Amino acid sequence: MISSEALKQKLRAGSYDPRLRKLYVSDHVSRQAQRLVELVDRYEACFGAGAVALFSAPGRTELGGNHTDHQHGRVLAASVNVDMIACAAPNGTDQIQVHSDGFPDEAISIGELIPKMEEVNTTSALIRGIGAAMKARGYTIGGFNAFVMSDVLPGSGLSSSAAYETLIGQIFNHLFCGDELDAIEIAKIGQYAENVYFGKPCGLMDQIATSVGSIVAVDFADPKEPVVQEISFPFAECGHDLCIVDVGADHADLTHEYAAVPEEMSGAARLLGKEVLRDVPEEVFFQNIPLIREELGDRAVLRAAHFYGDDKRARMEADALREGDFHRFCQLSRESGRSSFEYLQNVYPSGAPQNQAISIALMLAEWILEKKGAFRVHGGGFAGTIQAFVPNDMIQAFTAKMEEVFGTGMCHVLRIRPVGGVVLTKGEHS
C-alpha cells in the first residue's frame, strides 16, 4: 500500500512508466499515467486520502475456437491493451463500497454473501459472488472502498464482465488473501460469480484470458482443471494490426439466440450418449447425422460440425503461432470465420434476417483485404463485433471504410497485452 498523495507524485514523475509501457504496449504512456492520477483523485473525492493500491485488468480477444469452450473444447485467446483500473483500500468495516465512473454505486455487506434474485445481471452480484468464493476458500475477507474506471466498454466484444471479475478478484486477493491465489483460480472464481450470482451461463475462456494475460491456448477437456499454455508470439512484428469492429447492433433480446448454441450442441451429444461434443468422437457424430437431423433438426447438425472443425483449428492456430507462421494462422482464422458464418450461424439473429450488421462488416472486410490478413465474427456473435488482422499499409483504408459504414470510433486498433490482472502498486510502501 502507498499513500494516495505519494502515489500521484510518483505517477506524475514517471516512476511507473516502465510498468505502464508493458501494460499498454506503447512507449507513449503519459495519457495512461494521467488517467491513473485522475483515478486516485476520484477515489479521494469519494473516500478521502490514505494508503491505497492500484489494480488493472485487461479486456480480451478471442483468437480461435468460436463457441467451443462450453463443449469442453479448445480455444485460443489473448488479453489486449485496454483495461479496467481500480484504486482500492480496506475500510475496516463489513461493507464493500465500489464507485464506478458512469455506473451506479455499489454497497455490499460481507455478512450477506448468498445470491440475491434482485441482483441478477448487476455488478453487485459479481462482487457478492467473488466475496463468497473467497470466503469459501478459507480466507477472512473484509470491507473495502474502491473506485473503478474502464476503457473496456460493455458490448465492445472485449468481455467487460470478465475484466470486472478479474479486477474485483485481484482486489480481494491483494487486500485479504496475501496474493496467494493464482490467475487461474481468480478466473474460476469470476466464472462462479457470473454463473451463480450474476445469472449468466458462461465458459471459462474470457476469465482465463483476462486473468492470465498474453496469448493463451486453453484445453477444457477437464473444465475443472483446464490446461493453459501461454504462447509467445511477437504480434507487433508481424506486419498486421489487430482490429475489432463494433457494428453497433443491439444485444437486447438475443439471450435465446446465444442459449440455443450450447443447447443444440449438447443436445446432439446427449443423443449420442454424452453430455458434450468433446466426448463424442467425430466419426461417431458423422455416422449419426440422420438421427440428429430427425431429433433436433438440421441446424444442430451444422453447429456440431462447426465444433469439430473449430476445435481442431484452435489447436492448429496455437501451433502456427508457436512456430512463428503468421500466414498459416491467418488462413486458419479465415476458415474459422467461414465456419461460424455457414455452420455455427451466429452472424445474425435467426428471427431477424433483415438485421445483418455483422454480415455487412465481414463482406466489407473481405472486399477491402482481398486475400490478405484475416477476418471473422468475434465472440458470441449475433450482434457485437468482428475481428480482423489488417496489413499495416492497409489500416487507414480499412478503418476509414468501416467507420464510414458503422460510425466514427467503431474500429478499434488494439495490441496484445503481455500480462493479465495485476496489482500496479505491489511492493510499494509509504
Describe this structure in words.
By secondary structure, this protein is α+β, with helices and mostly antiparallel strands. The protein has two domains: 238 residues, Ribosomal Protein S5, domain 2, CATH 3.30.230; 180 residues, GHMP kinase, C-terminal domain (Alpha-Beta Plaits), CATH 3.30.70.890. The chain is 44% helix and 20% strand. The strands form two sheets. Strands 1, 2, 3, 4, 5, 6, 7, 8 and 13 form a nine-stranded mixed β-sheet that branches. It has a four-stranded antiparallel β-sheet with strand order 10-11-9-12. Strand 7 and strand 8 form a beta hairpin. Helix 5 packs across helix 6, helix 10 crosses helix 11 and helix 11 runs antiparallel to helix 12. The radius of gyration is 22 Å and the shape is globular. The N and C termini lie close together (7 Å). The mean pLDDT is 94.
- Indicate the proportion of strand residues: 15-25%
| CATH class value of the largest domain | Alpha Beta
Q: Provide the CATH architecture of the largest domain.
A: 2-Layer Sandwich
Q: What is the CA-CA span between the terminal residues?
A: 7 Å
Query: What does the radius of gyration come to?
Result: 22 Å
Largest sheet entry: 9 strands, mixed
